[in-house]
Amino acid sequence: MAATRTIGSALIERLHELGVRHIFGIPGDYVLGLYKLIEHSPIQHIGTTREDAAGYAADAYARINGIGAACVTYCVGGLNMVNAIACAYAERSPVVLLTGSPGLSERIHNPYLHHMVRDFSTQKEVFEKMTVASVVLDDPHTAERDMERAFAALLRYKRPIYLEVPRDLVHVPLPAATRPVCTEEEPGNPAALAEAVTEVQTMLESAKRPVLLVGAELGRFGLEDQLLKLIERLHIPVASTLLGKSVIREDHPLYVGVYGGLIYRDARRVWANDALYREKQLVELSGRD
Questions:
Q1: Distance between the two ends of the chain, CA-based, in angstroms?
Q2: CATH says 7-166 is which class?
Q3: Does the N terminus or the C terminus of the chain have fewer Cβ atoms within 10 A?
Q4: Cα–Cα distance between 284 and 268 in angstroms, integer?
Q5: Taking the model in full, what pTM does it have?
Q6: If phi over 0 gives left and psi between -120 and 50 gives alpha, with beta otherwise, what is residue 72?
Q7: Where do the domains of the chain lie?
Q8: Are both 7-166 and 190-284 of the same fold?
Q9: How far apart are CA 148 and CA 152, in angstroms?
Q10: Residue burial 55-79, b: 16+ Cβ < 10 Å; e: rest
Q11: Which CATH class for the 190-284 domain?
Q12: 209-238 pLDDT tens trace
């Protein structure tokens, strides 16, 4: 007989299906139920000395693995994750922040519980500002749909999401229904795509010495191979931003260096690669030349 699927077990199962093999964090009373499920799942818990360290570890893991996750307790742990999650948002790193909160039943008679800041929704409201989806899984009839919507946003935008489970909802069974499956594919806009392609073609055709400037987004969306095909086909030199430094190998003949903007004495230039410009002349990135 198949085990009953609950809000907590469905969440851990989905994380594993999406590629999470390690989860970082520190246990606390509001997430002990989730931690028990993690302990009996294929996902290995990696303990850290502080919650923010768990956040940064999950961020690094996501950049390599394509998705990362951290599990911490309510407020005293969750609010200690703000810098790490904000960093992941700014640099497009798909991190799942999994946290607990006081049970719905205990909130009725205990309006002031330990670690609560102002009211029960404060933590969620904070993370709404730095995630692409922020949901509380507090209804078994909508929980799976809500988590799938959040995972779809994470996959589409490669940015963090926030998932909160009240501690008395972790083991609540889900209705017996067909589970929705998230996908990163959404209907596109063919007209907008055609317009963008035409605009890029026009820019390339009118440029005398075109140079591509690429950022970390290529790595987040797994487009490194397509970048190589493009520059090798058109024989266009490519520079990277500081964050995008690893999206193309640095010994590639068409790689001309890192463009750092205003941190350089001349913000419009990078040193050219010897293999491309033998005299190490400076390459203009302004588009004029």
A1: 70
A2: alpha beta
A3: N
A4: 6
A5: 0.76
A6: beta
A7: 7-166, 190-284
A8: yes
A9: 6
A10: bbbbbebbbebbbbbbbbbbbbbbb
A11: alpha beta
A12: 888 888 888 888 888 888 888 888 888 888
CB 67 within 8 A of CB 19: yes
And the tokens for 160? 């963090």
Q: Which two tokens stand for residue 138?
A: 């507090």
108, burial (CB in 10 Å: exposed 0-12, middle 13-18, buried 19+): exposed
Across the range 195-202, mean pLDDT stands at 87
Helix-then-strand count for the chain, H and E: 10, 11
> What whole-number distance in Å separates Cα of residue 126 and Cα of residue 86?
11
d(CA 12, CA 20): 9
Residue 36 has which token pair? 């028990």
CB atoms within 10 A of CB 106: 12
Task: Please answer whether residues 216 and 241 qualify as being in contact, where contact means their C-beta atoms are separated by less than 8 angstroms.
Answer: yes
Task: Report yes or no: 218 and 244 within 8 Å, Cβ to Cβ.
Answer: yes
Look up residue 115 and give its amino acid. Answer: H
